[in-house]
Amino acid sequence: MRRFAKSFCYAFCGVVSCLKTERNMRVHFCAAFYVFMLMPFYGFTAAEKAVILLTIGSVISAEAFNTAAEAAADAVTLEKRPELRLAKDAAAGGVLITAVFAAAVGFVLFWNVSVLKEIAGFYSEHLWAAALLALSAIVWAVLIALPCGRNYEDKNTDINNKET
After folding, report:
1. pLDDT tens digit string along 60-104?
2. pLDDT tens digit string along 97-125?
3. pLDDT greater at residue 66 or residue 156
4. Which residue among the candidates 63, 83, 118, 163 is catalytic per the annotation?
5. What letter does residue 41 receive in the DSSP assignment?
6. Is 50 exceeded by the pLDDT of residue 164?
7. How many CB atoms are closer than 10 A to CB 105?
8. CA 89 to CA 36: how far, in whole Å?
9. How many other β-carbons are positioned within 10 Å of the β-carbon of residue 69?
10. Is 63 a catalytic residue?
11. Distance CA 71, CA 156 (A)
């Protein structure tokens, strides 16, 4: 049971690591944040909510897999090798495809002029909510703009001795 619990800890650390090192992961989390902020304005069915959750999960997972592929390729060698370039480009292409289709899902489910007017009305009537929305945009802009760099050395984990 202890190993099982540790596996969740390692997985959580992987997500945090992706957020620290990958700007695009932060962009995807930002988009998910605003999707969750808009959802209450829509009368989505359970199936539509499930599609939104699966779409968000797919994009974030694709970005994590891309990060893993890039890290694995970089661990092999930093030399420019065509097969590693193909692996990295294909993984990045997978993220792009997933994100484009996620945007299409978002357009289909969220493009409703009457609801968009309702949202605008809500924020114009509730200035505190508009201020919080503006503050969140500033916070996300700062988080996304933070420098990212890959540092694969984790001082708390010895990969060779890690329990699996």
Report:
1. 999 999 999 999 998 988 888 899 999 999 999 999 999 999 999
2. 999 999 999 999 999 999 999 999 999 99
3. 66
4. 63
5. G
6. no
7. 19
8. 30
9. 18
10. yes
11. 18
Q: In sequence order, what are the residues at sequence separation of 6 or more whose Cβ sits closer than 8 angstroms to the Cβ of residue 29?
A: 19, 60
Helix (H) or strand (E) holding 113: helix 113-125
What are the angstrom distances between the C-alpha of 62 and each of 59, 78, 98, 103, 159?
5, 23, 7, 14, 23
Dig out the tokens for 131 from the structure: 């201020």
Half-sphere exposure of residue 26: CA atoms within 13 angstroms, side-chain side = 17
Query: Distance (Å, rounded) from C-alpha 35 to C-alpha 105?
Result: 11
Q: Return the closest-CA partner of residue 22 out of 140, 137, 144, 139.
A: 144
Q: Which two tokens stand for residue 25?
A: 């992961």
In the block, residue with structure tokens 């692996």: 87
Residue 93: what residue type?
Answer: G
Where does the pLDDT of residue 150 fall: very low under 50, low under 70, confident under 90, or very high at 90 and above? Answer: low
